[in-house]
## 1
Amino acid sequence: MRSTTTRRAGRYFVACLLMCWGSASWAGAPIVIGTGDASGVYLTVGQAICRLYQQSTGSDCEPLSTGGSLYNANGVRTRDFDFGIVQSDIQYAALQGTAEFYDSGPSPELRALFSLHAEAFTVVATSPGIRRFDDLMGKRVNVGNPGSGHRATLDALLKVKGETESVFTLASELKPEDMTRVMCSGKLDAFFYVVGHPSRAIDNATRRCGAHLVEVSGPDVARLIAETPYYSVTVIPGGTYANTPDDTTTFGVRATLMTRADVSEESVYQLVKSVFEHLDGFRRSHPSLARLTPRGMIDNGLTAPLHPGARRYYEEAGLLPPDTH
């Protein structure tokens, strides 16, 4: 006869199996959100989303620090986690199986929840002679760590120009938390960063080593915007950072929250509800979120279909008409 301890262990094991099996389908299930590195906006935004989800449902939510958009899109695709913050261009590429996802093919199971802040392709340089993107040819730059959205956006811009990263004398792959230190030491002329503003990393670079923002515009940029559904002109207001008193014109994307079609409708519904019903507090969690509106979060930057759980909340809140299909 088995001991009482053995029987209890067996019952506990069965209970755990049932809980794990059903965790994707019960309301308020624990969730993990792929975010970004410590110096960017994604981690702070993910922490704010998790805080609201925990307060609303009483269940756990982990904002996982990651390498950024590409890492998050792959993590959602491969079911390493169910939610990820990704740039709208990365969301589109993952859904369609283009660009970095060409070899893996389309992922029609990907779904969108809502969009977040606008993200500008931002060029930060130290030399006074670097005023436009084309001034960077032959310079030492940081192109970004593999798996980052800013690396993918840079490559898209270079492609439309008929160039590759070989036009730079140095194309380092530093993470955002390292690039300012290296540039201030004199080993880099510039770095690229797709980020919401204001950004702590860019503020540090402009204050610590006299860096400034660089204009990214012209016929090639206009063609890139015209050919893609996720890029648009973006203006970084003058005075946002030291040494850049005038507006800086560039282009950009939007950050979005992405998941898969097989993720529990109830979990998605509760997550969306927790953010939209506490939107004032959410906007205060980071300056880049200050201008978010419910309509803009549904209309802007969503390049994948809405998840049914998100649509359900938007219909109940009167933000979308009922889906009659």
## 2
Amino acid sequence: TARVERRPHQFLYKDDMGYHFMNASTYEQIAIQEDLINAPKFLKDGQEVEILFHAEEEKVLGCELPQHVIMTVTQADPGVKGNTATNATKNAVVETGATIQVPMFIEQDEVIKINTVDGSYVERVK
């Protein structure tokens, strides 16, 4: 059996070496490849994440974002009049560049909560 540790890290930036994170307590920096991150399209500067390590080997096993993240909508398609009777959705782009489906009433510059597990809209944030 392997001992797995969860350590809090903060996302710093992305470059051709991967995604760079800083340990919240030791300030040590590490780079992780995109395939080890559960929802890389929702990472923004300063985002708090938990990185899973194999304790004995100090090997990165994965990186998990919080279950929900708060994002600002940077672009939203206009709602089509008459589509509000059903649970109609439209495309919206959030500040990280990810495109998600949101209800018709969501407009540009609104702040929303997103589920990082499936990339779905949860609610509007006041």
